[in-house]
Amino acid sequence: MNAEVIIIGGGIQGCASAYYLAQAGVKVIVLEKDWVSRHASGVNAGGVRSLGRHIAEVPLSIASIEMWQNLSEELSADTGFRRKKLINIAADESDMQTLRARERQMHALGYYHEQILDDKELRQHLPNVAEHCVGGVLSHTDGYAIPYHTTSAYRRAAQALGAVFIEGEAVENIRKVGQDWHIQSQTSDYQARHLVNCAGAWADKIAVMIGDNVPMSYSAPMLMITTRMPHFATPVVGAVSRPLSFKQFENGTVLIGGGAKGFADREHNRTRLDYQKLAVGAQNVAEFFPIMKRASINRMWSGLEAYMPDNLPVIGFSPSSENALHAFGFSAHGFQMGPIVGKIISQLIINRKTSFDLTPFKADRFERKVL
Amino acid sequence: MTESLQETAQISCDILIIGAGPAGMMAAITACENGADVIVLHDKPSPGGQIYRNVDNSPLPDANILGEDYTQGGELVARFNACSARVFSSASVWHVGDNGEALFSYQGTTQRVSALEIIVANGAMERPFPIEGWHLPNVMSAGAAQVMLKSDGIVSDDAVFIGTGPLLYLIVAQYLRLGVKVKALIDTTEKANYLKATQQLPKAFAQLGMMTKGLGLLNEIRASGTPCYRFVKDIQISAAEHAKPEQASQVTFQCANETVTLQADQFFLHQGVIPNLNITRSLGLAHHWNAQQLCWQPTLDNWGASSVPYISVAGDCSAIVGAIGAQNMGKIVALNLLYRLDRLKLEKRDELATRAMQDMQQLNRFRAFIDSLYRPRDIHRMPEKSSVVVCRCEEQNLAQLEQAFGEQASGPNELKLMTRCGMGPCQGRMCGTTVSELLAKWRNTGVANVGYYHLRSPMRLLNLEELAKLETVAPRSAQ
Question: So what's the ipTM on this one?
Fold first, then answer.
């Protein structure tokens, strides 16, 4: 099969890239080794967060949050996005100092979307927060979405514009002959001028086939969700210096994250949970929100996710091969960036350039570093 | 014997058995007789499983009305209570790992146990019965009626019983023996099944006594004068208009080309039992679809060993084998583990298992007869009416699932992520089999190609504070 662009990986980055390319009339094929949204893009916590981003990611994240606001209309399907605000809680004065330093840095760069809350303001937003918490920081535009709904909305919108998705198609071999990429699966051959690597936890393997070495690792961040509870928190909640993260959905269920990692078995598409770390997560939630002590945990799970040593993604052209692009290694915070990354990938293929500075995300940024 | 907490700080054993029904009890007895160190975890106050629930402590003045099959369990429970296994009663297992570890709730805390070998024997559950109105208040399963009767001696007057299978007839007969009035038995067994089942007769003949038991119960019920409607289809349970709260008050159905409507305050449904998959699935054991029993079951060898080392499965959670079959299997699995643990020579294992193996073969022939006679109708497993609720926890009906299927959610996990079907507190127990069969029908393929939900721990709801109490090992600080 032939196309102008072949995208490897049917997660949110791959589906969004396919959508913006198809929208511009580009013929695109997405190859997904399992099924669309099977891994991190389908089972992540769904946080849509521009708050507290690494400085290098701030411009992308701000552009993306603007796209999220009317993404459901754009894709003609409910992504599950709800703008509910996002608050990171300061547990003590040292956290407040961290926030004030961050504010000075952000203001100096001209960013004003993060607003510091004092003790009283924090309680206006989160009446059930524990007594010891002293303040926090808030973003008005953030919220959450339903990951599987968002990813499959991109997929269906892309399909409606002519993009082809092939599921259960694992890439086994990639070669470049002349100007074209030749991609082989167990049963078929594909040919395209451009190749995009959105292979998530398997992206380092695809990168090697393209000719790029990347010090990517993978892991299994864990989540748990409760049964429906009386409504007690509208904003998405995190903490400045503690591994705490949760959100209460409209149906009352509370999703608890926090970044603790389970055990990844990439070869078998499997993960195992680390119950001791989940127990620590439960302690954290109960400490910040005593009301949660009564919660009933309904499910626990984890998904396979790619990490880079600096927790920043790889986005942009391959340093070694022409007409190959990467978008992976989002280190457990890539869901919110899906829309803008898809847009950037389409710009790079169609216009050969983008207005965003992608230097911090170069694939070869570790080339001469001893890690 | 119930273990005290002091002894449980760091618990380990040779063989961990989950469940104290006929399979778990017999496995424990066999393993202990041969010197193994055994721990049994089960979630009831006393052993016996569903079938022998409260057999040594019945709330009824005369437990004999529950039938010989029940009272015979008393002997097994007595042997189990006398064996050397460490038994944790009211211990609710919420995680079993392929590393030989189990986590369970016990007296308000989370406990951890590790074992060289694990036997999963957590029994069966009733097959979902997705018909119009099955989710309404006042509609329960016949199994729930059994539990109330055996545990607390509670019965429901003037109830309507709907479905097929020996367990349905048994509870009705038990009610009648107690002098409880039964409004009607609505039997959904298809006429054609009687013909098909007789083809299994020569094979099943050796178990004539067991074979006729279900039919004997049916005769007992009819002789009592209780209205029995047979070969029934198109069942619809509904609430009275404007009733607040909405609760079931009537059933309408087709019987002999006539539409019949009955009013009642209580409806009990049953159409057989299937293995309870929540432990075996979340353990990641290989499973396959059993077309005779119309259910998923773990793939096991003759000794009950699963696809994961050190995990064996016995009793009704391996395939529906019944109480006697479960005891045989418990014995067979335990003997094999004793061999693996070097407590029995290979020849001795084979010798001791001979009788149980033979009995299992006979029982399996009988099972084929039962399975074809009481095979639930397709329409009662794969609803066709769009308003029928499939997932009760998240209230997803057939129309909603069909829409998601149309939006390319073509596997059980995609469908779950799209609709929340199977995401509720029952962990998909009440909709998983239905969803597998529906998707197979829609995709025009075998159920085996469709698969099942990817299940995870906890296998039941877990209190957050209780999880927080799981003892943790502090990481050593980096030097």
Answer: 0.89
